[in-house]
Write a structure and sequence with these properties.
Helix content: over 70%
Strand content: 5-15%
Distance between the termini: 54 Å
Mean pLDDT: 88
Order of helices and strands: HHHEEHHHHHHH
Strand order of the largest sheet: 1-2
Number of domains: 1
Number of strands: 2
Low-confidence stretches: none
Number of helices: 10
């Protein structure tokens, strides 16, 4: 039995084992305190299972939720005889960061009640992880949303220019925060998808199941709100 078949045959076991490995890696390789590592891991779990919940609500089978040490986690869906619509893509992609940011409330409450600095550090990690996922690039949640919106625009040339600006902006942000390792991960894992997107934008490919104008406005508003939310809350609490 191959590793991929094992994951899909025993999804719950795979999720549990991979979660434990992810937790252990945070302690022994990232040198995080156990309570900090557990808080961050649980927040990431909520993020990924929010994706899975969205899939289930949309009648899309969830094959597995897999935690990947040193990288993050992924909710794997499939098993339907059709492509996801752009609306479904946006709902599933946005569900993760929404769930992730919601975990800030109990963590902040714990930080306030216990005055434990580790919970405040956990808040920083949670915000960083979710904001990183909202970058409008490749297979990240933000990339899924922005790509769905841009591919639904009537003017393909404008869509292509905006797509190139989003990719350039994301790389600039990663470079500015010295996230060199993440840039390398993007280069290795996302490069094929970026090339595919480039060809689709360049050739002006027309897609099916696109977003309406109202849906574009709605999902873009939610996306911008999610990106801005941590900064607004931080300002209000300061």
């Amino acid at each position: 039995m191959g590793f991929r078949n094992f994951i899909f045959k025993y999804p719950n076991l795979t999720s549990l084992v991979s979660f434990i490995l992810f937790f252990v890696v945070l302690i022994y390789f990232w040198h995080l305190q156990p309570i900090l590592a557990l808080t961050v891991s649980l927040s990431l779990a909520v993020h990924e299972y929010s994706h899975a919940l969205a899939m289930k609500l949309l009648k899309i089978p969830v094959k597995a939720v897999l935690f990947i040490p040193f990288m993050g986690a992924v909710a794997i869906g499939g098993g339907i005889n059709r492509l996801w619509t752009k609306k479904e893509e946006c709902i599933i992609a946005l569900a993760g960061p929404i769930g992730g940011f919601l975990t800030l409330a109990p963590v902040y409450l714990l930080a306030y009640l216990t005055s434990n600095i580790l919970f405040y550090i956990a808040i920083t990690y949670i915000v960083f992880i979710n904001l990183l996922n909202l970058l409008p690039i490749g297979i990240l949640d933000g990339g899924r949303v922005i790509n769905s919106i841009l591919k639904s625009l009537n003017n393909k040339k404008i869509a292509m220019v905006l797509w190139m600006l989003s990719i350039s902006g994301s790389i600039f942000i990663l470079w500015s925060i010295k996230a060199i390792n993440f840039i390398l991960i993007i280069a290795l894992l996302m490069f094929p998808e970026l090339i595919r997107d480039w060809k689709e934008y360049y050739n002006g490919v027309r897609f099916n199941h696109l977003l309406s104008r109202k849906q574009i406005a709605l999902f873009l508003s939610i996306y911008i709100s999610l990106v801005a939310c941590p900064f607004i809350v931080s300002y209000l609490l300061s």
